[in-house]
Amino acid sequence: MQSSSEDQSQKYLLQGNEAIVEGALAAGCRFFAGYPITPSSEIAEIMSRKLPTLGGTFIQMEDEIASMGAIVGASLAGAKSLTATSGPGFSLMQENLGYASMTEVPLVVVNVMRGGPSTGLPTSPSQADVMQARWGTHGDHAIIVLAVSSVADSYEITIQAFNLAEKYRTPVILLSDEIVGHTREVISLPPDQPVPIFNRIKPSVPPEWYLPYEDNSRGVPPMADIGSGYRHHVTGLMHDAKGFPNFSPGVTGGFLKRQYRKLANGADEIQMTKQFMLDDAEVAIITYGCVSRSAIRAVRMAREQGIKAGFLQLVTLWPFPKKAVDAVCRRCRAVLVPEMNMGQMVREVRAVNQNATLEQLNRFDGGFITPAILFRKLMSL
Amino acid sequence: MVEHAAKVRHDFLRHDMNFPHVWCPGCGLGIVLGSLIRATSSLNIPQDDLVLASGIGCTGRMSAYVDFNTLHTTHGRALTFATGIKLAKPNLTVMTVMGDGDATAIGGNHFIHAARRNLNITAIIVNNMIYGMTGGQYSPTTPYGSKATTAPYGHVEQAFSIAELAVAAGASYVARGTVHHVPQLDGLIKGGIQKKGFSVIEIMSNCHTYYGRQNGLSDPVEYQKYFKKNAVSVKKAAEMSAAEMEGKFSIGVLADIEQPAYVEEYQHIRDNACKEMAEKGEKKGGDCAQERRDEM
After folding, report:
1. What CATH number does the domain located at A275-380 have?
2. What DSSP assignment string belongs to chain B?
3. What phi, psi does B208 have (nearest 5°)?
4. Chain A residue at shortest CA distance from B72
5. Smallest CA–CA separation between B65 and chain A, in Å?
6. Among residues 219-248 of chain A, which lie with CB inside 8 Å of chain B?
7. Sequence spans of domains, chain B
8. Do A234 and B70 touch (CB under 8 A)?
């Protein structure tokens, strides 16, 4: 890795979708398979231009099911892999996303959210896929879901998404939305504090000893690339440490427990949040994604009026950052959870702390929750 | 020779898998597995460089038994996973094995597009004209008038001809064989693997348990005789009328053409993109001056 001082940091005016590409390439992504869909298509277009110059591969597949299959295959062969889509395509990806979860394949899926259900509102923002991101594929499974709120976020959190995928051998969902994806902001690249890059741990034992799904203290088995001499079997069926189908209660229970345990072990690192003026806050906003932008402004406006307001941004949505949310709920006399859906993450906040005075504020008509809307609500708490 | 063949089978099978396999006694899939092993081993490709991806169904279980890099993927999607593997590591020999329902019903879209792209992958499709694992429901290759557990009054849909479909979709090499004509089948699979570009080997196989039992072919030996009786060489079939071909099918190589294959074509994209960047004086990866670990 080069040190950042060798490169002169420069300012760029980038779109959120462009910053996701830059973050992915910086993280080492060298494979992209996707299918065009608004409002995410820029990611595919820019990847098709940049990846070949880096020795990587871009392919436009016949649909999102195929895109998801291709990135699982590429990641198994050792390439850090990405796909990007929006609601309807995300629905189609759920099948092979489950396969990635079952076989513990690191990869990143970007969902630039738009209004649903179905074809819905192709060019309007929404945050209504947060529960689908957690529970979209069938069956119990562990997964990491992150949400971005700005162009700078889109760059940095994309790198984090790849790092977490590689470190915990898991698919990671990166949620953006039509507003963040299409907003242009100034960003310095490389950033002043470059994000370190993490690569998957490879086996250190000889091939004949290798067990691709063997438990260890971290719950994350080392991962051998296909074609590296560690021949093994990969199946979407429930499987034992060798990777062969095994439906015994002991193997099945152990597998699912390890999947959940490996993310629980890393909770401090995985559950990312950002705090804004929370130290002395009496009322707080908890939100994520594009609404974070309005929240910061609304908190400033409230402070100008003498209201001690603060803001907790959830960067990680799943596993839900319970500790940070609980701390805010305990400290503040009222907590506002605005979302651009009919109330999805607010259920999790309520589950974490049932004594808190919670207010939800929902907009689901394709419009944005503006600072003024939040400010008025804050003043009424 | 016999001794050598036995050793190859031994080396290419996974002995830590719980044999016997899941297939019914007399199933043609065992013959296909033998053919696959003879074809791959005769090419002297290291097992570490062989990849076999399968879908779901009886045929889908084949991947677990061979000691290659193997994937048992989702229903119909084997080719999509194989696409990612081949493009990420073009030096690997990537094959898929799918059933008729797997490849041409739920995976039909992936199949025609892999052929159209001319991806450097060998697709083996075992056609037993029925969904075996789920209990004998009709598939896209179930003949008109046949019985199936979901066509108890007789099937009213026309069947796909898989090999002809592959030819029309643009595959470089297309062949059809049967589990009765085994030496020929070994050669067809070998020819497919050696072909640069997308190759398809359709293998007519017997599901006497589910197709046969409902359609008067419940004895696997009788089923073999059915293949013997109704298979016509591609050359001979070309000289026969449609009426003479009624109920029969051709075996042999249906297409073997030279055309640009995907992996080589994409390398041209990489070369041209780098050249264009250099001419414009831009950095590889574009104009954002940032850390890039150039691994290639």
Report:
1. 3.40.50.920
2. -HHHHHHHHHHHB-TTS-SS-SSPTT-THHHHHHHHHHHHHHTT--GGGEEEEE-SSTGGGGGGGBSSEEEE-STT-HHHHHHHHHHH-TTSEEEEEEEHHIIIIITHHHHHHHHHHT-S-EEEEEE-SSBTTTTSB--TTPPTT--BTTBTT---SPPP-HHHHHHHHT-SEEEEEESSSHHHHHHHHHHHHHSSS-EEEEEE---IIIIIHHTT--SHHHHHHHHHHHEEEHHHHHTS-HHHHTT-EEEEEEEE-----HHHHHHHHHHHHHHHHHHHTPPTT-S---------
3. -70, -25
4. A235
5. 9
6. 225-229, 231-237, 242, 244-245
7. 2-259, 265-295
8. yes
Question: Which residue in chain A is spatially nearest to B78 when comparing CA positions?
Answer: A69
Query: Do the chains contact at B85 and A65, CB–CB below 8 Å?
Result: no
Is it true that A10-189 and A275-380 share their CATH fold? Answer: yes
Nearest CA in chain B to A238: B72
Q: For an interface test with B, give the residue of A67, A75, A226 to mutate (most B CBs within 10 A).
A: A226
Instruction: Report domain extents, chain A.
Output: 10-189, 207-268, 275-380
Q: What is the pLDDT along chain A (381 residues), one digit of tens a residue?
A: 344 444 578 999 999 999 999 999 999 999 999 999 999 999 999 999 999 999 999 999 999 999 999 999 999 999 999 999 999 999 999 999 999 999 999 999 999 999 999 999 999 999 999 999 999 999 999 999 999 999 999 999 999 999 999 999 999 999 999 999 999 999 999 888 888 999 999 999 999 999 999 999 999 999 999 999 999 999 999 999 999 999 999 999 999 999 999 999 999 999 999 999 999 999 999 999 999 999 999 999 999 999 999 999 999 999 999 999 999 999 999 999 999 999 999 999 999 999 999 999 999 999 999 999 999 999 999
pTM of the model: 0.96
Chain B nearest CA to A207, separation (Å): 11
Of B91, B289, B294, the CB nearest to A189: B289
Class for the domain spanning B2-259: alpha beta
Topology of domain A10-189, per CATH?
Rossmann fold (3.40.50)
Q: A66 to chain B nearest CA, in Å? A: 5
For A13, nearest residue in chain B (alpha carbons):
B288
SS3 (DSSP) at A352:
helix
What ipTM is given for this predicted complex? 0.96
Q: What is the pLDDT of residues B50-69, one digit of tens each?
A: 999 999 999 999 999 999 99
Contacts of A231 in chain B (CB under 8 A): 47-48, 67-70
Using a CB–CB cutoff of 8 Å, tell me whether A189 touches chain B. Answer: yes
- Number of inter-chain CB pairs under 8 A, A vs B: 190
